[in-house]
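Researcher: Good morning. I'm working through a list of sequences from a screen, and I'd like to move beyond sequence-only analysis. For each chain I'm collecting a predicted structure so we can compare shapes side by side. This is the next one on the list. No need for commentary yet; just the structure.
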Amino acid sequence: MSSTFKVENGDVVISSMSGRPIMVSSKAKLRQEIKEMLTIEILPSGFGTNLDALIGSIPNRLFTITILLERQIRKSLDVLKAIKIKRRSTHTTDEMISKIAQISVVPAKTDQTLYTFKVDVTTEDGGSQSVNGTLRS
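Model: Good morning. Structure tokens for this chain:
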């Protein structure tokens, strides 16, 4: 099983009791990895989505934006899945992505520059993880 520092709002979470970083593993680690992937530039490994730059670089056409965002999210999830497969021996089945169950990007009804997204993955142990958020063009 692998573990990493717990991160909230871009900061490592420190235990008030021990003064040491709090660690996450299993499902919490997978969820954190997906959140990180959605918020960073694309790294040389392909991990990351660069969604904020993508939104700002294309015309504000509903269909174009939603399709491009969904494609970029799927591509990066495939990279995350491949990275985990290469290091399978260090991950438990509840950290391994078995399939991408759903990716949806929907424009807000009241604000044409706001999009909500939802990402659902199924893990190898049959569980699921869901991450959602908002993006503004």
